[in-house]
Amino acid sequence: MSGAPGRLRAAASSAPARRVLAGADMAAWPVLSLAALAVGAYFLLSGTYLSTIFEDVLIYAIAAMGLDFLGGYGGLVSLGQAGFLGLGAYGVGIAEVHGFGPWAAVGIAIGVVIGFAAVTGVVAVRVSGITYVIITLAIGQILWGLSYQWTSLTGGDNGIPVTTAPSLGPLHLSDQQTLRAATLVVFLVAFGLLMLMVRSPFGLSLRGMKSNERRLRALGYQTAIQRYLGYLVASVFAGIAGILYVFANLLVSPSTLEFSQDGYLVLMVILGGLASIWGPVLGAVVIVLFQQEVSIYLSRWQTLMGAVFIAAVIFTPDGIAGLVKAARGALHRAATAAGPGPAALAADLGASPPGPAPAPQTGPDPDLIPRRAGTDIPNERPLRGRGAP
Amino acid sequence: MTEFIVQTINGLTLAGVIFLVSSGFTLIFGVMRVTSLAHGAIFLLGGYVAYSVIQHLHNFFWGLAAGTVAMGALGLLVERGLLPLLRRSEMAELLATLGLVYVIDDVSLAIWGGNPLNITLPGVLNDSTTLPYRGIVYPNERFFILGVSVAVAVALYLLLRRTRVGAIIRAGVDDRDMVSALGINVRVVFSAVFVLGAALAGFAGVLGVPIVGLATGNDTTILLLALAVVVIGGLGSYEGAILGSIIIALADTYGTAYFPAVSYSVLFIPLVVILLVRPQGLLGRRAAI
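Above: the input entities. Below: the C-alpha cells describing the complete assembly.
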C-alpha cells in the first residue's frame, strides 16, 4: 500500500471513496493472483503443448526473479544471468556423466553455482552501473566459452544429455507431469522467498543502496556484504532454474547460456518491470510466448520482440508493472473525481465488508514527514535518466 | 617456430580488424558515454550490405564503400532517432541498443539467411605470397587487411591529433561540459562521433569478412572482443584501443592455436582484472566509468 501522492490526496478527499478503493484493492490482489495461479496450474498440468510453455515460463521466471532482486531492488542489472542458469544445468549433466546419482548431481550443481558465485561475487559487487553490466557480461561469457570450447568436459556444441531425474518416494521427476508440478512448487517457494526478502531489512537496505549508497554506508550498513549476498541469491535463483531446465529438456548445450539468452532474461525483467515482484513473471510470460507462440505465426517475431522491448525502454521505463500502477492511479483519480457513483458502489458491494484497512487519517500529512532512510526509501528508477527525477 | 610466426601475423591482422571496431566503440563511449551494444550487429550488417552490393556490382571496393556509408547512415538514424528518446539514461541507452541487436540480427537473418557467406577479394589480393623467411606462404588478403587497418589507424590518428574536429572530439572525451560552454555545438559533435563510430564498424565488418567470416553470431563475438579491448585499453582512449586490440587479438589467436579449450574464456580474465585494479584501463587517463 505505498501511497502515491495523487492517491493520498484522492483518498483524503472523500471518506467513502477511500473505503471503497482500499476495499477493492485488498480484495482484488489475492483474488487476481489466485486466479492467475489457477489458470497457470491448469494449463501447466493439462498435458497439452501449453504445459511445456508454462513450464518454460516458470523456469525462466525463477531466473528472472533472481535478476530482478539484484537488478530491480539493488540497481545491479546483470547481463550474465543465463550463465548461472547454464551452470546449474551443466552441473547436473556433468555430475551424472561422471556416475553420480540424480540427487547427488543436484547437490553438486547447487554447490558449483554457489561456489562460482562466491568467487565471482567478490569481483562483481565492487562495481556498479554500466561497469557491473560489463563485468557480469564477461562472467557469463567465461561460462559460455567453457561450455562451448571445453568439449572433453561439456560435449561442446552437442551439449550433454541428462537421462535420470531424481525421485522422492512415489514421486518420479522423470515423469513430466510430476516434474511440472514440482516446478510449480519451486516457483511458488521462490516467489514467496522473493516477497519476504524484498520486505526484509536485507531487501530494504538493497533498495536504499540503489537510491543512495553513501548514506546507507554512513548509517553503518555493510553495503558490500549486502550486495554480495544479493549476488549469491540472484545466482542461486538462476542455478535452481537451470536444474529444473535440464530435467525438463533432458539436454543442456551452449545455446542455453549464450549472449542472447542473457539478453532475454534482462528483457523479461525490464519488460515486466524492474523492482516489482510479479514483473519478472509477467515478463517471462511475454518473452516465452514470443519465442514459442508468436514465432509460429510470425517468422520475424524477434524483430517484433526487439521493437517492443525498445518501445518499453522508451515509453514505460517501469515496464508492465509500471503501466498497471499508472492505470490504477488513473482509475482511482477517475473514481474519486466522479464520487461514489454506480461503479464504485458496485465495487463496494463486491468488497464488503470493507475490512480494517482504511485507518482514519490522523496525525500529520504523511508527505510532510521526513523520510527515514532504511525504512521508507523512495524507489529510485534507474531508467529515468541522469540527474533528472 | 614457423607456426608461431604465422599465428603472430594472424593475430596482428585480427588486431587490425578489431581495432577498427573498437576505435569507434571507444570514441562513442568516451565522448557520449553511450555503451552501444549494437556495435557488433552494425559490424555484421556492414559485411552483409557489402556482400549484396558485390553480388550486383562485382567490385569489392564498391562493397566496402557501401557497407561503410550504409552503417554510417544507420548510426545517424540511431543517434538522431533513438538516443534522444532515452532521457540520457546510460542504462536505458544500453538496453535500447540491446533491443536493437535483436532487430538487426533478425532482419539480417531474413535477408541473408543463416548460412555463412563469404566475400572474395579481387585479383592479386586473392593470391598468396611466399615470405623470404622459412618459405612461409601467406595469403595476400590478410596483408591487405592489415595494411588498410594500419592506414585507417594512421588517418584516424591524424584526424584526432592534427585537426580542429579531432581536438573537439578529444576535448569532448575529457570534459564535455566545457566544450559546450566554449560555444561548440555538442549535438553536432555527438552525431559526428556516432556516425564515425558506426561507419568504422561497418568498414571493419566488410574488411573482416575474409578473417572472421560472415555469419550470424559473429556480431556477439565481435561486440565482446571490442568490449574487452576498450575496457583493457581504457574507455575513450585511441591509443588504448590499439594496445587493447593487439593484446586481445594475439591472446585470441595464440589461445585458439595452443589451448583451444579455454581460449575464449581467458580473454575476459584481463577485462575483469583491469576493471578491478585500474578501472580507467591501461591507457585511460581517468576513471571513465
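Note for the figure: The two ends of chain A are 22 Å apart (CA to CA).
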